Amino acid sequence: MKDTFFKIFVFLFFIGALGKISAQNADFKSDFSFPSTNTKADTSLDNIIYYYNSKTDYLIERTFDTHLDVFSTHYYNKANIPNDHYYLQLNNEGSATKDMIFHLDDMFSYKRNSNGFEPYNFTIDNVKYFQNRKAYTSLAYSNSINGNQFFNVEFAKNLYKGLNLQLNYFVNYADETFANSQVMNQFFNFSLNYITPSGRYRNNLAFAHNRAYIQENGGILNDSIFINQEYSKDGTYLVNNSSGWSKWKTSDYAFTQTFRIDKSDNNSPKIFNLGALVHSISYSRYAHLYDDRNKTIKDSLGTNIWRNSLFWTNNIYTNKGDFFIPLAIGINYDLLNFNDSLYSETFHLISPEIKFGLHYKNFRIDANLSTIVSDNEYKNDYQFAIVPKYFFFIGKSGGNHTNPQNNSFVFAEIKLQNKQPDYIFSHYLTENFAWDYDVQKTNSKCLSLGVALANKFIIKANVFELKNFYTINSDANIVSGDSYLYQLQLQNDFSIKSFRFKGVLTLQKADNEDILHLPLLTIKQGVAYSFSWIRGKLNTDVGLDFNYFTSYKADIYNPLLGIYCYQNSDKIGNYLFTDVYLNINIDRFCVFAMVQHPYSGLFNHNYFNSPLYPSQGFTFRYGVIWKLLD
């Protein structure tokens, strides 16, 4: 394994050296997220009109981030980076996760069960596309005293005029405190995109693959922590103590092409025009396999999704004119196949969609409506959302309504949804469990109100009404109920002289805790102090990251099902995790060192980030990141 890893490293590094490289920030920057800074614009596409006509268009990058993010450099696990998610996870980095902050799924998020690796997965919605004149490569390697190591390489290059290639490979291996507790994750994505010189035709081709292996804590009782009873007697930890393991695999393929029928340009924009046609075809496969030496059949869960979509849009982005009406109308055909060890079922779904808006000066209103008209369990699924915004300016921002990232704005969102529950709630047939339920639609309503202030603060309040909300309890029984859920969230990303702050605070409360357990308060906050020395050649960041959530009855992980299940007995939380780190940057080369949980064991041993799975203790991590520019 080590020889193979070394050969891969040398091969990819050689490719990167030939390409000589740049770097980017590939996070989706919507009106509700903070923009990247310290970027150098690439003007190769300035004369091309863009249509917001597919889910991949907004992912096309036209900037090179030549600086390193203070708050993410020292982490490869996205679960630790401050954002509006806070994940439960098992004791190993890279293990299965569950979001502790409630979010409403999209209607089209068809799945057999909840995705257990959200901070890691590459999917069609988050792979990276580039249109750049310069090649780039980014290399990252990290290790810890507990043997948790990772390697990441990103490479992008313009192959010919408007044809661009991107590759990303990530691997992490964890063999940590607990005797036979191991994780091996490999994630890879590949994308091509092409834009004609006129910009009238473009296409995106993408492939993403994920493989995650977890040794399900077999042999955990052999660990000295349990032998010495530092936590409690070992009999209280009902984890799987046999030689069970889980393997997750996902694969995504997608091809999207756009042809602009209208020939308008920036000098003669039209509110209504002949628009463009957008065609997209994709295939996604999700699989979970569980194996145990005491079982005769391997438990498995699988989902296969084929999608074919055709849309027409008249949406032209232009910097001129105060009046703008975006419009997109289309239809999707989805073929869904769900399967487990002993059963398989297929559904055919047709769903028309319409997206429309009205943008006038500083006022914007956008809406979308989707519904399923097929004759099966998914019939009459629908979702409707409307989002009005009003932009205003603070200080000398100089922004306008066509460049909302430079503005402050107040916003509201009303979202209505009627959705078939995840398939696992209706049918499951394996060696260990079997059920067949006639489930009702989950009906959800959400009202959001908020304000974004000068790209530094976002304050948002949400009220959810959930009817027929489904969950699985610790005895593998399906339960459902109704609840109101209230949320208040504050995001921050600002600087005061040499200090940087980035974090999120979330308050949330459900009035029916018989179906939904959530921590009352979650906090993820980073604080960093930046300075230069040796005549400004070494840029240095010293920082602290704080993670905290209040005590609550968190969901418990079921390795046979591969999901987190509702439980009503054990509480975790009310423990502050702190990481201390140092980044030293020389141009685009960074060396970092980090101490995670330095006061492990000093006060108590109540540090769990998932019931029955104690969190890691003291860990020293070190690593390098190198971004090479052409």
The unreliable regions are 1-64, 218-224, 231-238, 397-405
Largest sheet: 22 strands, antiparallel, barrel
In percent, how much strand structure appears in the residues?
Answer: over 45%
**How many E strands?**
33
Assembly state here? Answer: single chain
Primary descriptors:
2 helices, 22-stranded antiparallel beta barrel, 3% helix, mainly beta, disordered N terminus, 630 residues, single chain, globular
Write the layout of secondary structure elements.
Elements: H1 2-19, E1 39-41, E2 60-61, E3 63-65, E4 87-89, E5 97-99, E6 129-130, E7 136-144, E8 149-160, E9 163-175, E10 182-195, E11 201-215, H2 224-227, E12 245-260, E13 276-291, E14 299-313, E15 323-324, E16 327-340, E17 344-360, E18 363-371, E19 382-392, E20 408-419, E21 427-429, E22 434-436, E23 442-453, E24 457-472, E25 478-496, E26 499-510, E27 521-533, E28 538-549, E29 556-558, E30 563-565, E31 577-586, E32 589-596, E33 619-629
Parallel strand pairs: 2-6
Antiparallel strand pairs: 1-3, 4-5, 7-8, 7-33, 8-9, 9-10, 10-11, 11-12, 12-13, 13-14, 14-16, 15-17, 16-17, 17-18, 18-19, 19-20, 20-23, 21-22, 23-24, 24-25, 25-26, 26-27, 27-28, 28-31, 29-30, 31-32, 32-33
